[in-house]
Amino acid sequence: MLKNIRKIDNRKMEFMPEVDPFSEVRLKGEKRWIIAHIFHGTNKFIVLIIFFGTILTSILNSALNIIIGVAIDEFIAGIGGRLFHYVLVIFIIGVGSPFLNLVNNLLRETLAQRMERDTRQEFYTNLLGKSQSFHDQQRIGDIMARTTNDVRMLNFLISPALSLIFESFAALVIPIIFIFLFFPTELLFAPLVFTVLFLITLRSYTRKLGPVTARLRGEFGQMNAILNETLSGIEVVKGSSNEEYELKKYLRNAHSFKDAFVEQGYIMARYIPLLLIAFTITFGLGHAIFLNLQGSPSMGIGQIIAYVGLLGILRFPTFISIWVFAIVRLAISGSERLLEVMNKESDIDENIQGRTAEIVGGVSFKNVTFCYPGSSQPVLLNIDFEVQPGQTVAIVGTTGSGKTTLTKLISRLYDVTEGHVFVDSVDVKNYHLESLRSQISYIEQDVFLFSSSIFDNISFGKTGSIDQVTRVAKEAQAHDFISKFPEGYYTEVGERGVQLSGGERQRVAIARAFLADPKILILDDSTSAIDSETEDRIQASISNVLKGRTTFLITHRLSQIRWADLILVMQRGTIIAQGTHEELIKTSEEYRKIFIKRFDLREEQLLKMEVT
Amino acid sequence: MGWGLGLGSEEYDRIYRDRDLVRRIISYFVDHKLQMSVVIIFLTLTSFANSLSPLLSREAINELETTRDWGYLLLLILLTFTLNGLGWIFNFFRQRNSSLVIGNVVLKLRQDVNTAVLNHDLSFYDKYPTGKIVSRINTDSQDFGQTAELTMQVISSFLIVFVVLGALLTINIPLTITVLGMVPFIFIIALAFRKVARKRTLEGQRALATVNSFVQESVSGISIAKTFRQEKKLYNKFNGVNEQSYRANLRRAYVFNFIFPALSIVQGVALVLLMWIGGEGTLGGHIKAGDFYLFFQSLWLFFFPLLSIASFWPAFQAGLAASERIFALIDTPPTVLQDEDRILDKIHGKIEFVKLGFSYVESSDILDREKQNYLPEIARAKVFSNFSLKINPGESLAIVGHTGAGKSSLAKLIARFYEFQEGDITIDEISIRNFNLKAYRKHIGIIPQTPFLWADTLENNIKYSKPSATKDEVLWALEQAGGADWVEDLPNGLETNIRERGALLSMGQRQLVVFARTLLENPSILILDEATASVDPFTETRIQEALEKTIEGRTSIIIAHRLWTVRHVDRIIVIDHGKIVEKGNHEELMEKGGHYATLYDTYFRHQSLDYIEKTRDYIKAVKEGN
Which of A323, A346, A350, A520 minimizes the number of CB atoms within 10 Å of its CB? Predict the structure, then answer.
């Protein structure tokens, strides 16, 4: 499954809260990774206790049967002197063994839940450490399925699968030992050949299951992805009356899931070891009778019965492994899906040894070209410009010309494909990523709010007191509408902030950026949904906030463009003109067009106005 | 942050009586009676074959002592092989049928619950996190499938218990009664665990749903966490949610693991009693030694299925808990309910609001204190009261007002996304409550504030409302919506998969796609909700031209902050706090010099060259002033 994986350097992860003991073993494949988890830390002691506990329980249960047998034989023979002893022993084992069993079960459950918790934490931490370009390519519903459901498979792997494997082991080994000890050695032939063939067929069984369980887990992820997407876009679904279409889309997947499930059942149905055990017992019986007929002194009728009885014990591991190894296979397939994500290389180098100095605010792009990972189509081509600290840069251009992408290169949400981005004349790659990002704030177009209170959302980037939060909210013109809610700043905003209007969400996001107090501020069309009157006031506070920091404005508001220190005019991923308004109005036809279109002016008029 | 750390139930959760739940579950299985019977029969046969074959072969081997001819030997070998080989055949039929039953039942349940969920109105989605709903539909239905397996095993176990009980009675009646005396204890223990098992299971399922929901939300907002370097915050939150799930599910597992040992103790006690009574009896001569022996042999056969039934009972509760969560989702009535099912081939587009009263929550919820705490504050406010407005067929109407004035709510009400509490909305003189919703919405085109696109090809996204559209039509729609030139820049043109929410496209492009999608739908009523907000001036002009063409001949409602857009509409209304404060066309309102004129002046001031030139001084003043 894992081919050509390069060694992942931990420092390359964007986020790594603590030492990750599994980073190495993840590269060695899912089986090694699972085993490493099972034996991690105190887990290994639990596994040992479960192992011996399970075997002890099996022995006690067999002992109970033997004692009852002996007791009955004595009673039949009329010997009753030890009746009370037997009663006592049966009581001790009959009541004591469940207690042992209980302790064993509780430990097993603890281990199982621990596995689930720890692998989930490992997976989620890893997700946080992945770069933005990684996240762009994931479907959220599928990630959800991996984090909750695939991880859960590891829980089932321990409980019940692991303890059943131990039990099976005992049931496989104990008869062989007994046969070895008390029967002619040649009678070992049947169980030994069986064990070998059993292991071989079991291997081919799990191999056959492999693709199916992988499909099963994959289809589940797909199903989750589709459902999550449909429900996220429910307003569009309803608006277009496309409920049936969405349902069909989901059902097509649910059907594939069912098909995989049924196919798994069919493979389980054809389970070969069950035929093997029939042959083994029959052969063993024949073999024992043969010895008996030959007059072997140690093979009386009683011995034949005992021998066949011992062979019968082998049926337990044979039967149970149909089911146990389906669970094991599901856990492996689930882990494959986890590792598939975790082993994807994060393209961004965290560079914790990098520069952490305070940023002054100079930004320059040198011959920057950028393609999205996995694509060779350049989104940005040969970008060159330079911004002095504290300047305001306006980026204008048609939709899809690369304006947003350009700003994302500064905070290294993406890394350039060619060329360099410098902040204070230092390549951004040479900064400690955390230090770089903490000094850059970005207010996105499509404001994302978490489903928590307004206070929490504003103080998301930087923890602030209620006074500080109120102050920035006032600056962002958000205080008025916030204080109208009965719960004020502690009002819950709902999933994705649905309870707020677009303009309100943008103001909360602006307040969030203000509180972070960055050296470089990027506003990506962040006032588009705010009405003009409110914007007038926001404009004032923004210009206030602009003081002493470098600002990038992606905007269509001419008033913002007009007075920028530098204007970049973009078209299809390149800068076709740059300069100040005064320069561009004379030199750039494209730039003039913005004004001409807006005001229905003719070109001469515009130029004349400039002169006056 | 307030990521629902509690394990409380959702508002729509309800408690079903076990009897009702079981009846309902059975209804899912009736279609598979035959397959289930096959499974039950083979389960039972497997049990008998497993337990009887050692006994039978022992008896048969004992016969060897007296009959030592080849014929008998051959028979014995054949018998042994058949008894053991049957296991494979039984397993073959059982596995195939049981996976068919479970697969189909889970599929049916998923279909039902998804159909129900898609019928819920938007107020439902505003309240409940998508992640938790997804968890119910996909994960809980899988848990439900386990009940299918359990049910079949329980039925099979009952069969075995009764057969063995009959056999035991023929062997020895007093001993059988001793054994039966233990049965009530087994059921008392099982029943005692019932409630706690159900409760812990529900908690476990909820905790997992919370994890699901948290992952969904935090991964959706990952770019915010990254830009603000707040991964640590999410990490800590996640650990909280994950730890909670760990604890809840561990508690659940602990409860379940007490059951079997507890039952085994009862079994142990039964053994002791039997040994004592039976031993005394055998020694005293009241009981035949052979009977005593046989009785002990059969006892395992009796206890094993009995313990299975008893220990399945709580596990069955887990299935019940899952089905309870699913049925609650199915049974929640949508608040948007239609009185009639009228389908109109054509809508002229006359819209009338009659003394409309609306808030985002039901009035009954507002009275319920407990629910009130749960609801977001904002949702409780009344958006409209006694609101009246008439829109003529083919009229274009612009709604103007501050953010939060209720403009978008009006549009959502026309789309019938929400139920209103008072008054009425009529379309072509027919109450909006009397339409077949699906047919009605086909006549309505909505361009929402935030464009939502699917992880599908660009072409399919545009065809979303009209799957039958040809490629030419798609290109036409794109052309109408400001031009298709940008499509060439995509890696695979129209065939490009634009990823979840259209992440591959810029925000402006996404809006163009939504615009094209709506144009292709060719609706009678068009609603534009601030749709031009993120488009650059070039594209905006093109859209503006397209829009002017599009609104011809259909009722159009435009919600816009960019007053540029609204100058050409037939009528403008200004809304403030859910009330119409002004109406008229652009010229009239400007002349009037009221709210609209102020808004327009402010807006236009921003757009005028004069303002643009003065901004410098304005900003300078602010900068120097501070």
Answer: A323
